[in-house]
Design goal:
It is built from 15 helices and five strands. The chain is mainly alpha-helical. The longest helix has 26 residues.
């Protein structure tokens, strides 16, 4: 279908934008490969859900269950970006029919629910971590701070990419207009544009659910947190592509859909053409977190190369360090943390400077760390986190512990 072809082209354009630095905003959504992958799986699951609800396909329900199971096992964010909004979307659409298709609705909701529960169970079995743990901290002050940071970051990105922002607003408002103005005509079971209405409804619900969950959980701390909002950023364009493929084949309707996609394509081209191509350095963004800046300022003095920290600080330092510092995530007591982690990294050696020498103690049990590894040789503060610096004894102690926990030979 024309929509599927254009959707692939849009994803390709976004990948080019990231790789060349032509669209600054796209740096952040792809920082986390598994969040980005969950969005791609949601785009696969939505057409399967449409086919399952409409009936007529024996394969679609099985494929939908498999995709949702794998997505939930991979990333609990999938519940927010697909499972919950899809369930509400098809419930509302079913209630608009007369008679209500309870059997088909029950099958679809059952598939979504069972796949979610089994996926979460599989994730806990594989990682020994409860699905969603580490994400949620429902406190009013954190939610308000998160909302404020989101507003600041959105304003900054709109200033950097005004064409993208205007296009996003235009397509989103068009989807809302469809929901309001075509509520009766396009929700009827025999409407040829029922699928288009369903895509618009899902997109608006998913946008609200994703942004609302991130804000309420207090997750939006700075612009890197756009990695949690990949679907709201991309769905107005990918959803338009999907909806175009669902438009009936009457010449004027298909022509209108293709024309809308043409406008989007031209707007993308203009956006890229106005941005300078990246010419220096392997990093697209000039953003450097305060923690990384501080650690690199102390790097030569304390010999900081490899270290350990909680999951969030470990990922932040390894991702943004300009000098090659590498930090592996550990539990509060300094044991392996097998959550979104390649276990080989604990025992890898990358050149001569691969000895563990420091611990970022934020979110860790500092007393337990000292009981295991002794008193640090030096300490200093970085971005509100205390950093323990050790001598040669930390590396063998950590590697022996990691090798024993992973049941692999020490390197």
């Amino acid at each position: 279908a024309v929509g599927q072809v254009v959707a692939v082209c849009v994803v390709a354009a976004l990948a080019v934008a990231y790789g060349t630095g032509t669209l600054y905003l796209m740096v952040f959504p792809v920082l986390s490969a598994y969040h980005f992958g969950a969005v791609l799986l949601a785009l696969v699951a939505l057409p399967l859900a449409l086919r399952t609800f409409r009936g007529g396909s024996r394969l679609a329900p099985w494929l939908l269950g498999a995709v949702c199971f794998l997505a939930n096992a991979s990333d609990s964010l999938f519940f927010v970006i697909f499972t919950a909004p899809a369930a509400v979307c098809f419930l509302l659409l079913a209630l608009a029919w007369r008679p209500v298709p309870w059997r088909r609705l029950g099958i679809l909701l059952g598939i979504l629910g069972v796949a979610m529960l089994l996926g979460f169970r599989a994730a806990r079995w594989l990682t020994h971590k409860r699905a969603g743990a580490g994400y949620t901290s429902l406190k009013l002050e954190l939610a308000l701070e998160s909302l404020q940071q989101l507003g600041v970051s959105v304003a900054e990105q709109a200033r950097r990419s005004p064409g993208f922002a205007a296009l996003w607003v235009l397509v989103t408002l068009a989807a809302v207009a469809v929901l309001v103005m075509r509520r009766r005509q396009w929700t009827a079971p025999d409407s040829p544009l029922w699928g288009v209405y369903a895509v618009c409804l899902f997109g608006v619900l998913a946008l609200g659910a994703n942004v609302g969950a991130v804000v309420l959980a207090g997750l939006f701390g700075d612009q890197t947190c756009f990695r949690y909002l990949v679907l709201p950023l991309l769905f107005p364009f990918l959803g338009l592509s999907l909806a175009a493929g669902l438009v009936p084949r009457e010449a004027w309707r298909r022509g209108l859909a293709v024309g809308a996609l043409g406008v989007v394509a031209v707007a993308w081209g203009v956006t890229f053409a106005r941005k300078p191509w990246r010419t220096g350095g392997p990093f697209v963004t000039g953003y450097v977190p305060a923690l990384v800046t501080c650690l690199e300022a102390h790097r030569e003095r304390h010999g900081l190369e490899w270290g350990v920290a909680d999951y969030w600080d470990a990922r932040l330092v390894s991702l943004f360090s300009r000098t090659g510092m590498w930090v592996n995530p550990v539990s509060a007591e300094g044991h392996t943390s097998q959550w979104i982690m390649n276990v080989d990294w604990y025992l890898d050696r990358r050149g001569e400077q691969s000895d563990y020498t420091f611990v970022i103690t934020r979110q860790l049990d500092a007393a337990a760390i000292q009981r295991r590894f002794g008193a640090p040789r030096a300490t200093f503060q970085c971005d509100g986190a205390e950093v323990f610096v050790y001598g040669e004894g930390l590396d063998p102690a950590l590697r022996d512990g990691f090798a024993g926990e992973l049941k692999r030979p020490r390197r």
